[in-house]
Amino acid sequence: MSEERRLAVLRAIVQDYVHTSEPVGSKALLERHQLGVSAATIRNDMSALEEEGLIAAPHTSAGRIPTDAGYRLFVDRLASIKPLSAAERVAIARFLEGAVDLDDVVDRTVRLLASLTHQVAVMQYPSLTRSSVRHIELVPMTARRLMVVLIVNTGRVEQRMIDATRDMSTPEGQRLVAELRQRINELAVDRRLGDAAAELESLPGRFEPDDRELVRAVVGSLDDALVEEREERVVLAGTANLARSGTDFPLSIGPVLEALEEHVVLLKLLGTMGHDEEAVAVRIGAENPHAGLQSTSVVSTGYGTGRVAGLGVLGPTRMDYPLTMASVRAVARYVSDILES
Amino acid sequence: MSEERRLAVLRAIVQDYVHTSEPVGSKALLERHQLGVSAATIRNDMSALEEEGLIAAPHTSAGRIPTDAGYRLFVDRLASIKPLSAAERVAIARFLEGAVDLDDVVDRTVRLLASLTHQVAVMQYPSLTRSSVRHIELVPMTARRLMVVLIVNTGRVEQRMIDATRDMSTPEGQRLVAELRQRINELAVDRRLGDAAAELESLPGRFEPDDRELVRAVVGSLDDALVEEREERVVLAGTANLARSGTDFPLSIGPVLEALEEHVVLLKLLGTMGHDEEAVAVRIGAENPHAGLQSTSVVSTGYGTGRVAGLGVLGPTRMDYPLTMASVRAVARYVSDILES
DNA sequence: CTTGGCACTCGGCATACCTGAGTGCCAAGG
DNA sequence: CCTTGGCACTCAGGTATGCCGAGTGCCAAG
After folding, report:
1. DSSP structural state of residue B80
2. Does the pLDDT at position B128 exceed 60?
3. Same-domain check for residues B165 and B313
4. Which domain holds residue A290?
5. CA–CA separation, B155 and B157 (whole Å)
6. Residue A64 Cβ under 7 A from any strand D atom
7. CB contact under 8 A, B261 and A244
8. Of the partner residues B141, B155, B237, the one whose CB lies closest to the CB of residue A159
9. CA distance B275 to B302
10. CA dist B321 to A274, A317, B282, B290, Å?
11. E strand or H helix at B17
């Protein structure tokens, strides 16, 4: 009973099951794969695999389906990421190059990934831990309302509205705003988001007591925006694909949809996948921390400079891992290219 | 066979069916409602209602369920929008007031509406047809890349990156950018989006031939942003609620999810609901233009100044219309208040 | 270790049957 | 003319039953 053949059997089971979504029996394997042994032998191997917890039978007289551990082993040792065809790659590049701004890049990316994999695509906005302040603009909206706009070097923009304690339509008011704008930019531009917040701390002290309240309000809202900006956002597409893969979810897709709506959950998910290297990370079924996602798998990778932001795909554990991994990797590469250009 | 009683029967059927989600028969009506007549009489009335196409029987020996037309009549003539309780209204106000910026207002609103109605909430970003340019900022990112930022008086911000044909790190380059910034703002600030775009047309001609290409690029991207900004965006929440109301969708929730993902569809939907007045508009089942939404109803209303943007709820035709309408109306009012303050 | 043979299991399908909710209709009563 | 009780009829859905076949496990021989 060679170890090698047993793994070949596991591979065959995974492939068949992914393909047909029905438990696969020894006979079916015999027909669809050239294993060179008889059904009885395969049965023995399957017994052993079941013993090891890699496959399981839904009930006595049925074929076997892979367990989470089975998929895990498949992904780690048996699957090769099949590269996409040239045509597919061209199509990806074409589609992503049409984007007009960052939002559009993100939007197109998730849609693309969803349609490539027929699953739910998830993408974090480019991470900003190492991003810096590009410019800060103060725009008086009315005499007593001021908009603070923070522009980050990655192209993201955050805005806040504040109620001013001073009338800014007067000449002194305008002068104050102008000075504040200049000072703020001197202190913050080109600094990392966290550092900028620290620098701004001292600012109110350098203004006349009468002006300090306004300055404090502005600095406060900037602080807020800087923090918000560090909290990443997430975008998704392809939720309809969940409905398509109907029977794949034991109970209902409800919990999954719920989890998807909690962007915090998704951020945490992507954040803990650990894709520091260039590799594609996979989390299978119960490996997943979130309760609602126990019967789903996540395939993700980092992208962008330093790969600090993540992007990936979420679907039933019964998914075509090689294909999904290839798609995720390819899309991540193209997006990285585009963002860095 | 009084017309009046027949409508009372219809009302009772709708209420019961919404409540139990099971076809309702004459006997059940007799028990749960004080109609003052016997089952046989109710049966006669139900016959008549079926004749009129207001209710239908899923099969011979089952009770009746309302048809789209039945719901329509119910909504138009039989339902009174029951106002929310004081406690509910306080909760709504509290929750919405915690918002820090426009994005947050929108986000909170949809979530709130989804959880109030247990359905899918949809909200258009405040419409900008009558909004105007507040400020335009040009930010050099590198020597040859310039970011154009458009700030609209509603608080929305749109940004575009352009590749400059001239080096902007030189003194002349900086001067050019500064002049361009000033000129653009002179022309565009306080104008409506459409008008601003028109004004900017003439700008390239007023610069030196050498500078025109850059000016044209900037104006072009602004044009783009102005148009984009007029195209509204849409945000939704509560898709998981679709899964909960399982049997309510004849086939699957797939098509519905698909439609929800096509934001263009949703915009069109909200756009064609015609909520000019302060009323709540309802579209029931097949009244709906989009194929994937034939078994859903949409309850929406306008909000904000002039009620040009819409917000609403989407769910199975079997929904609690009075409650939903009340929630939509109440939330719209609070959001309007907040946005106008 | 492999293989063919064989007994065994059990989910799923088809069939049959029964029950009860619900209807439609009718004839009698107000 | 409307209302009402009575009654026959229909039919979806649940339960009981039996059969079939895919699939397994085990064993003895190669």
Report:
1. -
2. no
3. no
4. 86-127+232-340
5. 6
6. yes
7. no
8. B155
9. 5
10. 47, 39, 9, 21
11. helix B3-20
Q: How many CB atoms lie within 10 A of CB A325?
A: 26
What are A303's two structure tokens? 């992208």
DSSP class of residue B250 equals: S
Q: What single DSSP character describes residue A299?
A: E
Each residue's pLDDT tens digit in chain A (341 positions)? 577 788 888 999 999 999 988 899 888 888 888 877 877 888 888 888 888 889 988 888 788 999 999 999 999 988 888 888 999 899 999 998 888 777 788 899 999 999 999 999 999 887 555 678 888 888 888 888 888 888 887 777 888 888 888 888 888 888 888 888 888 889 888 888 778 888 888 888 888 888 888 888 888 888 878 777 666 788 999 999 988 776 777 667 888 999 999 888 888 888 888 776 678 999 998 888 888 898 899 999 988 876 678 899 999 999 999 999 999 999 999 998 888 76
Instruction: Please judge whether A137 and B134 are an interchain contact, meaning their C-beta atoms are less than 8 angstroms apart.
Output: no
Buried b (16+ CB within 10 A) or exposed e, B83-112: ebeeeeeeebeebbeebebbbebbbbbbbb
Instruction: Let me know whether A118 and A254 are in one domain.
Output: yes
What backbone torsions phi and psi does residue B200 show, to the nearest 5 degrees?
A: -70, -20
How far apart are alpha carbons B151 and B275 in whole angstroms? 28
B146 and B221 housed in the same domain? yes
> How far apart, in whole angstroms, are the C-alpha atoms of residue A117 and residue A313?
8
> Does some domain include residue A81?
no
Task: Give the CATH number of the domain where residue B256 resides.
Answer: 3.30.450.40
User: Does one domain contain both A43 and A111?
Assistant: no
Among B115, B136, B157, most A C-beta atoms within 10 A, so best to mutate, is: B157
List, for residues B298-322, the tens digit of each pLDDT value.
999 988 876 678 899 999 999 999 9
For the domain that residue B172 is a member of, what is the CATH number? 3.30.390.60
Task: Supply A147's token pair.
Answer: 């908009």
DSSP class of residue A1 equals -
In chain B, the number of structural domains is 3
Flag whether B81 is in a domain.
Answer: no
